[in-house]
Design goal:
Length: 148
């Protein structure tokens, strides 16, 4: 069994919109909504790059990423932290693009990349608003964050 639980997969599948946090070259945070977030397998999330040159530019030198996916109606979701991999060609790129996104991207211009995140932690998330999604290879599930 992978790190993505059945409920994590359900939330990602139902919400689709997530937010990917990356780090800019100057050290400031960048947060980008991704409406193409999907579960790839028991250990990975993926998202397509449609119009996010800043996200790709940030991931190339510093692949650390956090992806949050939250159901805004119940204000609960998940946080995925890890390392992203930008896919621009090859078998895995083709599989992700065509098997996961063809129905979304048919006729939509892309910037030629899909991203996958190798996450080291996944944890439940309580939120006041909707949050993030990304492609993740998860090593272990983290304990829920403690309340202040």
């Amino acid at each position: 069994m992978g790190i993505l639980s059945a409920d994590m997969k359900r939330v990602v599948g139902e919400q689709r919109l997530g937010f990917v946090a990356t780090v800019c070259p100057d050290g400031t945070p960048n947060l980008s909504p991704k409406g193409t977030t999907a579960v790839w397998d028991d250990d990975h999330l993926v998202f397509a790059n449609i119009r996010s040159p800043g996200t790709l530019a940030n991931l190339r030198p510093n692949a650390n990423v956090e992806v949050n996916v939250v159901d805004p109606f119940v204000r609960k979701g998940y946080r995925f932290k890890g390392v992203a991999r930008v896919l621009e060609s090859g078998t895995l790129y083709d599989q992700v693009r065509w098997e996961r996104y063809f129905r979304f991207l048919s006729g939509v211009p892309q910037q030629g990349a899909t991203s996958a995140v190798s996450a080291s932690r996944a944890s439940p998330r309580l939120a006041a608003t909707a949050s993030t999604t990304a492609s993740a290879s998860l090593a272990r599930a983290a304990a829920p964050p403690s309340s202040p």
